[in-house]
């Protein structure tokens, strides 16, 4: 770069700090007003390191010798603000003397913007993680309220189309003297007990392909054969019912509170849909649900009751004994049987 070119650059250097340095010792020979404004105490003859203590003078010379140019950044305080400049040092000739042209551009605003972008990116990333975590919690909650296939439909379309499912087996369970137990126990104890029991029921139901639909206090309803049809829905719900009884019997032997349930089983068609708008819930209703609830009333403590027609469908999987005559939800008279839970047939 010639001295004329340097002068032309100096004239154009409005807002840009420009200085000339002796290439041999990197002492300042000239600086423009902008440079003086930034470094008010600078004097001619000072060395580059006096103004930029963090700069490696040997590194500057080496870069000029090997690459023909040095570039770097430096930050310093100007009054109460931190200022960052991008500096470029190029060798030049002033007559026969070798000089270096130092050009400094204020990039503080760029650095501030980069910092803002980094902060914004971190905030977006943090918010994304929180949204993902909340989404997972909502998904987990909804999956506790409805079958996955129903949830997927609700997530995709925002609604769940009511459907009729045929050949669904329904289990309806409640506990004897539940109101008395609630009155005698601390509410926290009751909730903890029900949580343990329903969690166990859910686990047992999963083993046999059953889908818990809802719990209302001591009422627990689970189904088999929906939303995916199953030819073994009756066997599955019967196996689960027997396992429920066995679980409670075993639990009662080691816990202070006895839980004695009654179970009604039935099969038939049900309608499944999400009901409600703000406090919606996936629910099933129909003849099979009503019959299961009615037959439950014919069951004694820790007994499972179903119709003879229902028992005929699981064949020899579970031994039964006659339980007399009963009526279904529509008033139809049916012969009832009681499933015996003390058998090794379950889980074969």
UniProtKB/TrEMBL annotation:
<dbReference type="Pfam" id="PF00211">
    <property type="entry name" value="Guanylate_cyc"/>
</dbReference>
<dbReference type="GO" id="GO:0019934">
    <property type="term" value="P:cGMP-mediated signaling"/>
</dbReference>
<dbReference type="GO" id="GO:0004383">
    <property type="term" value="F:guanylate cyclase activity"/>
</dbReference>
<dbReference type="InterPro" id="IPR001054">
    <property type="entry name" value="A/G_cyclase"/>
</dbReference>
<dbReference type="InterPro" id="IPR029787">
    <property type="entry name" value="Nucleotide_cyclase"/>
</dbReference>
<protein>
    <submittedName>
        <fullName>Adenylate/guanylate cyclase domain-containing protein</fullName>
    </submittedName>
</protein>
<feature type="domain" description="Guanylate cyclase">
    <location>
        <begin position="169"/>
        <end position="296"/>
    </location>
</feature>
<dbReference type="GO" id="GO:0008074">
    <property type="term" value="C:guanylate cyclase complex, soluble"/>
</dbReference>
<dbReference type="GO" id="GO:0070482">
    <property type="term" value="P:response to oxygen levels"/>
</dbReference>
<dbReference type="GO" id="GO:0004016">
    <property type="term" value="F:adenylate cyclase activity"/>
</dbReference>
């Amino acid at each position: 770069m010639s001295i004329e070119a340097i002068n032309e650059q100096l004239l154009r250097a409005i807002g840009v700090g420009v200085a000339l340095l002796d290439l041999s010792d990197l002492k300042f020979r000239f600086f423009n007003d902008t440079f003086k404004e930034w470094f008010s105490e600078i004097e001619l003859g000072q060395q580059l390191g006096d103004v930029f203590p963090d700069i490696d003078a040997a590194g500057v010379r080496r870069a000029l010798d090997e690459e023909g140019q040095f570039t770097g950044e430096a930050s310093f305080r100007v009054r109460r603000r931190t200022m960052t400049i991008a500096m470029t040092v190029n060798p030049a000739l002033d007559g026969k003397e070798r000089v270096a042209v130092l050009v400094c551009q204020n990039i503080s605003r760029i650095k501030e913007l980069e910092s803002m972008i980094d902060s914004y990116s971190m905030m977006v990333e943090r918010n994304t993680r929180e949204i993902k975590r909340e989404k997972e919690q909502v998904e987990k909650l909804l999956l506790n309220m409805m079958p996955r296939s129903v949830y997927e439909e609700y997530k995709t379309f925002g609604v769940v189309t009511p459907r009729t499912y045929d050949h669904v087996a329904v289990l309806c369970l409640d506990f004897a003297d539940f109101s008395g137990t609630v009155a005698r126990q601390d509410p926290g104890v009751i909730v903890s007990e029900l949580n343990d029991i329903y969690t166990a029921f859910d686990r047992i139901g999963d083993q046999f392909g059953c889908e818990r639909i809802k719990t209302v206090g001591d009422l627990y309803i689970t189904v088999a054969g929906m939303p995916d049809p199953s030819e073994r829905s009756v066997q599955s719900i019967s196996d689960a019912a027997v396992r429920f009884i066995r679980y409670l019997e075993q639990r009662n032997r080691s816990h202070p509170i006895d839980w004695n349930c009654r179970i009604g089983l039935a099969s038939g068609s049900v309608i499944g849909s999400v009901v409600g708008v703000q406090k919606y819930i996936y629910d099933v209703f129909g003849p099979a649900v009503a019959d299961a609830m009615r037959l439950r009333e014919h069951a004694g403590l820790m007994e499972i009751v179903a119709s003879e027609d229902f028992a005929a469908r699981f064949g020899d999987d579970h031994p039964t004994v006659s339980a007399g005559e009963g009526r279904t939800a529509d008033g139809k008279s049916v012969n009832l049987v009681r499933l015996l839970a003390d058998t090794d047939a379950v889980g074969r």
